[in-house]
Amino acid sequence: MFPVISYWGVLFCAGITYCQELSPIVTLSDGKVQGTVRKTAQDGKIYYAYRGIPFAKKPIGDLRFAAPVPNDPWSGVLNATADKESCTQALSLDNLSDIVGSEDCLYINIYTTNVSVLVSL
């Protein structure tokens, strides 16, 4: 029985290590973020992508048309693996009713080859 438990324990630990490599977590000044490991299309170089990180409070209510207000820190790990919606914009000047995006667009994407650089953000 012991070898079976040990075997599954090793597989479980290996799975955790593998997941961490594909979803690196770093700690920024506002909290922890989880990104992804990606490869460049041309030469396959590894880089880390952290997408959709809030850098200011949502510009709604009294904050609409005001200077950005720093974001509150979050608890837990922020999922930074996908882009957020783009800022509001008209697709055509001929048809201003054709508008896409959101006013809630104060997010940044960070791409880096060195995760330790993010610690200072």
TrEMBL record:
Pfam families: COesterase (PF00135). Residues 23-113 form the Carboxylesterase type B domain. It comes from the Eukaryota. Residues 1-19 form the signal peptide. Keywords: Glycoprotein, Signal. InterPro entries: AB_hydrolase_fold, CarbesteraseB, Type-B_Carboxylest/Lipase. SUPFAM superfamilies: alpha/beta-Hydrolases. The keyword Iron does not apply. This is Carboxylesterase type B domain-containing protein. The lineage of its organism: Eukaryota, Metazoa, Ecdysozoa, Arthropoda, Hexapoda.
